[in-house]
TrEMBL record:
Belongs to the FAD-binding oxidoreductase/transferase type 4 family. GO terms for biological process: lactate catabolic process. It comes from Flavobacterium cupreum. Its EC number is 1.1.2.4. Residues 531-562 form the 4Fe-4S ferredoxin-type domain. Gene3D superfamilies: 3.30.465.10, 3.30.70.2190, 3.30.70.2740, Alpha-helical ferredoxin (1.10.1060.10), Uridine Diphospho-n-acetylenolpyruvylglucosamine Reductase, domain 2 (3.30.43.10), Vanillyl-alcohol Oxidase, Chain A, domain 4 (1.10.45.10). This is D-lactate dehydrogenase (cytochrome).
């Protein structure tokens, strides 16, 4: 319950901000209060701010009440800079606007835009943003700027600090500054003359002190995010440029970046990489010095432990398992604007390293798939190592930098510290070209002895980095809480004094993310440590990095996979400890809807998770554990599937009758009323709801041919026909047969078709045994129909095909089962003549295609059939089988902005999942149907 000033603030907030975006229940506070670090602070209030004016409103009222405010974008931060026990403002979902500037030479971005999304937007201009952190697919621009992110290829020349062009800022008192706008600068100077003068005075003092200025300049010749960006004081004269660059890396402690414009850098089209294997770390580091003069974009060091953490991953070179215990790898990357230049650069690199002793010959690959795999190995190292930790331990990543010529010696010294403090599992990797090393180790914080061991180790690391090598304690992950006690040690008293003045100038009340970067508590890095209890084998490997969240359809509606795991871990901890039963009950009260009901269980989270954790599978398991009397209903349906589909067809026909009788508007109103009074038990109707399917036409093929194919119409398409809004009024089962006949194929149906089901409707609800039974019966029927794999098999729903693959038993290898896109692309097109339509079309790659790795085939097929194809940037439609009927809000969240991406010229959309197409049609305003309809429209028999 809120109390005191937090209750007053809440009452102020709800007067202006939608209460659905203000959270103070236990579950939401726990979920949104978690970032990728090993710290945990539970906020009192979480606000999903919608725009700049709301941030101003929050800051003014929080300041008046003396309440601290922390800003959060994606929460992939590793140093504890995005957690708070006060007010948390999340700038993600509503902060995704952008503008391409100067023909791609710059880009304006709001803080909620993903780093990878920015690069996709810039691809047509052969440009990208400079920062390229390993978390770029999950990290948002707000965090990238606030932490001065760099990464693998950008070094210090193309990091956020060096590429910032301008920004809009909200200060602690609510004042707004747009540094790109002369009028805004003039107004701000009149409004805040003291702030401007103090910044100018500070810069003049820093420049005048030549020893200090040289110290600052020298520190930034290597990667450095320890403390504030003091280089802004000596690099710039204009106070607004100084302010801009002080904000970079300030971790939300000086103000809120509501918009930032970045200069872009060239995105070379031609790329190649080589994983070079050396005898040991020392020999690998010696080669790094040689490669400094080579035409390379990146040189990434991976020690033997790091290689071991990924050696069993799919596609990883098998030779990694046989390397010597001391072996070390360098991932060397080179990029060019032409294929010829790339080959010259590859040869130049090989000439430099040819005299070096390597465990295997150096080989470069420019094959996109192999190249991507090498980088996937590197980018997934941190979570992969974390997944291998012992249950109950925390994974910690530290991030230091040395002069390149000191790298070999420093690395060996680090390894000695690991041995001294018994971190035998520690892994070293990093951006060797910049002397930047990351080291990952696991730590148990369940006893004072373990906390002391960690504390002593960190003291030794600080001594090594600062006193022996004068390096950076934080190269690119930000100071946060875990390095705050060591900032003065690294910089010295005078420079640290400048930092304290900077904080006082911008945040005199110390209410913006207090305790981060600057902290007088020498033990702050040992407090508020996050518990990671063992919970379930599926999710135990999770380190809460947040890489999964961009792929989750419910992340902006209720919870993300990381949230679900965090909450379930806390529930498990409370149950095991018996502590705080009231808190446990509060979590349980909200868990069902937010964590279970609204999980689409599409499994896309596993695709972006470096260790492939499928939180959807975990939720299905939870559903399986609570199966009760519903099991009898599910079992009855499975045994009477023919009658069930018949009944559903009739119900859909009745619904269609009333739609024609009442009209869409009245029908929608009645449906909404019935849904309301039934408390959501009656599904939400919409105008794209299909009518009942007609019974299949003769199950005997009308074409006799030497080319045969088994066609399995899914139970969904045997139940659902077309909607009144569909441009083609022929149901899919008929259309597929027409297309197959056009290609000269004889169609074979499996026996007892009306009783067959892949099992997907049952497995998604947790009825695993029933799903397996149905899957086995279907497999036997298909084997018989195909004469044990002699003929190919086509299933008309991509999700059903995925389920068939998942449930496949002993006959899997002998059956050739396709979904329509695969079959048309791989087999049918050779028997058809295609005349592409000039009408622009949209396609949507459903989740099952992505999980099977064939999503590109849908786009490729559409591009053969249409001159212009639009592929919206949307992961999952959120319809999730029947969720679109039960919880239409999930579908709406998943497809937010779809119609804007399509534009006014697109009138037809295509996919390959009937229920997904209903939601896509509703939220785009155009009819989505199977891709089969498009192929049939533009094809003729040869």
């Amino acid at each position: 319950m809120l109390s005191g000033n937090y209750k007053i603030l809440h009452n102020k907030l709800v007067s202006t901000i939608d209460k659905d975006r203000i959270f103070h229940d236990s579950l939401s506070l726990l979920a949104y209060g978690t970032d990728a670090s090993f710290y945990r602070l539970i906020p009192k209030i979480v606000i999903k701010a919608k725009d700049e004016q709301e941030v101003v409103f929050i800051l003014k009222h929080s300041s008046a009440l003396g309440l601290a405010v922390t800003f959060r974008a994606a929460g992939t931060s590793l140093s504890g800079q995005a957690v708070t026990d006060s007010v948390l403002v999340v700038a993600g979902q509503h902060w995704k606007e952008y503008e391409i500037l100067d023909n791609g030479n710059a880009i304006r971005l709001q803080p909620g835009v993903l780093g990878s999304r920015a690069n996709i937007l810039l691809e047509p201009y052969n440009k990208k943003i400079g920062p390229d952190p390993a978390s770029i697919n999950a990290a948002m621009i707000g965090g990238i700027a606030a932490n001065n992110a760099s990464g693998m290829c950008c070094g210090t020349a193309q990091n956020t600090y060096k590429t910032v062009k301008s920004m809009r800022l909200v200060f602690a008192d609510g004042a707004i500054l747009d540094t790109a706008n002369a009028e805004s600068r003039t107004h701000f100077q009149k409004l805040q003359p003291d702030l401007i003068k103090k910044i100018q005075d500070l810069a003049e003092r820093a420049k005048a002190d030549t020893i200090l200025a040289e110290r600052i300049s020298g520190k930034y010749k290597m990667k450095n995010t320890t403390g504030y960006s003091l280089n802004a004081l000596i690099d710039y004269i204009d106070p607004f440029e100084i302010i801009e660059h002080l904000m970079i890396g300030s971790e939300g402690t000086l103000g809120f970046i509501s918009e930032i414009s970045l200069q872009t850098v060239e995105n070379h089209k031609y790329k190649a990489a080589s994983l070079m294997i050396f005898q040991n770390v020392e020999s690998a580091c010696r080669v790094v010095s040689l490669l400094k003069r080579a035409p390379v974009a990146a040189v990434e060091l991976i020690d033997r432990s790091g290689l071991r953490s990924v050696e069993n991953d799919k596609g990883v070179p098998s030779y990694l398992k046989d390397l010597d215990p001391e072996a070390c790898a360098l991932l060397v990357d080179t990029r060019a604007s032409s294929s010829e230049d790339l080959q010259l650069q590859i040869q130049a690199v090989l000439n430099i390293v040819k005299e070096q002793s390597m465990e295997l010959p150096a080989l470069f690959t420019d094959d996109p798939a192999e190249y991507a795999l090498l980088w996937k190995i590197r980018k997934g190292l941190f979570p992969s190592v974390g997944a291998m930790r012992q249950k109950g331990t925390t994974v910690i990543i530290e991030d230091v930098a040395f002069k390149t010529e000191q790298l070999a010696e420093a690395t060996l010294e680090l390894q000695k510290l690991f041995a001294k403090w018994r971190y035998t599992e520690a892994v070293i990797f990093g951006h060797a070209l910049e002397g930047n090393l990351h080291f990952v180790f696991t730590q148990n914080f369940d006893s004072q002895n373990e906390i002391d061991r960690y504390a002593n180790f960190m003291d030794d690391v600080a001594d090594l980095v600062v006193k022996k090598f004068d390096g950076s304690l934080k190269a690119e992950h930000g100071t946060g809480r875990n390095m705050a006690p060591y900032v003065e040690m690294e910089w010295g008293k005078e420079a640290y004094g400048l930092m304290k003045e900077i904080k006082a100038i911008f945040d005199p009340k110390n209410l913006l993310n207090p305790g981060v970067i600057l902290n007088d508590d020498p033990q702050i890095h040992l407090k508020n440590l996050k518990p990671i209890p063992s919970c379930n084998p599926i999710i135990d490997p999770c380190i809460e990095c947040g890489f999964c969240e961009p792929n989750c359809v419910s992340a902006d509606y209720t919870l993300s996979p990381r949230h679900r795991i965090t909450v379930n871990r806390e529930i498990s901890r409370l149950v095991a400890s018996g502590q705080n039963p009231a808190e446990l009950q509060l979590l349980l009260d909200n868990f069902q809807y937010k964590a279970d009901d609204t999980c689409a269980t599409d499994g896309l989270c596993a695709l972006s998770c470096p260790v492939h954790i499928d939180t959807g599978a975990f939720v299905k398991e939870l559903r399986n554990q609570r199966i009760g009397k519903e099991f009898r209903i599910a079992s009855w349906i499975s045994l009477h599937l023919s009658f069930t589909t018949f009944l559903l067809r009739k119900i859909l026909l009745v619904v269609r009758f009333f739609q024609l009788l009442l009209g869409n508007k009245l029908m929608s109103g009645i449906s909404s009323f019935l849904r309301f009074i039934s408390q959501g038990r009656i599904p939400q109707w919409n105008r794209f709801m299909p009518g009942g399917a007609k019974r299949l036409k003769s199950l005997e093929s009308q074409v006799a041919s030497q080319r045969k194919v088994v066609y399995y119409p899914s139970c969904i398409n045997r139940t659902m026909g077309v909607s009144s809004e569909d441009y083609s009024q022929e149901q899919l089962s008929d259309k597929i047969v027409q297309l197959l006949h056009k290609g000269g194929f004889e169609v074979i149906y499996p026996e007892h078709l009306q009783t067959l089901c892949c099992g997907m409707p049952f497995s998604s609800k947790g009825y695993f045994d029933i799903a397996k039974q149905k899957g086995n019966l279907l497999e036997l029927a298909l084997a018989k129909a195909s004469e044990n794999g002699k003929w190919p098999i086509v299933c008309d729903m991509s999700p059903c095909l995925y389920t068939m693959h998942e449930n496949a038993g002993k006959l899997k290898s002998s059956l050739k089962i396709y979904e329509p896109v695969e079959f048309i692309n791989d087999i049918l097109l050779s028997f058809l003549k295609i005349t592409p339509t000039s009408e622009p079309v949209a396609v949507f790659e459903v989740c099952s295609m992505k999980k099977m790795g064939i999503e590109n085939k849908l786009t490729e097929l559409a591009q053969k059939c249409a001159e212009k194809v639009i592929v919206p940037q949307t992961n999952c439609c959120g319809f999730s089988g029947d969720k679109g009927f039960e919880i239409p809000e999930l579908n709406a969240s998943g497809l937010l902005g779809l119609s804007q991406q399509l534009g006014p010229d697109v009138k037809r959309g295509y996919s390959n999942s009937r229920t997904c197409e209903i939601g896509l049609s509703l939220h785009s305003g155009i009819s989505y149907q199977s891709i089969v309809y498009l192929v049939d429209q533009v094809s003729e028999a040869i």
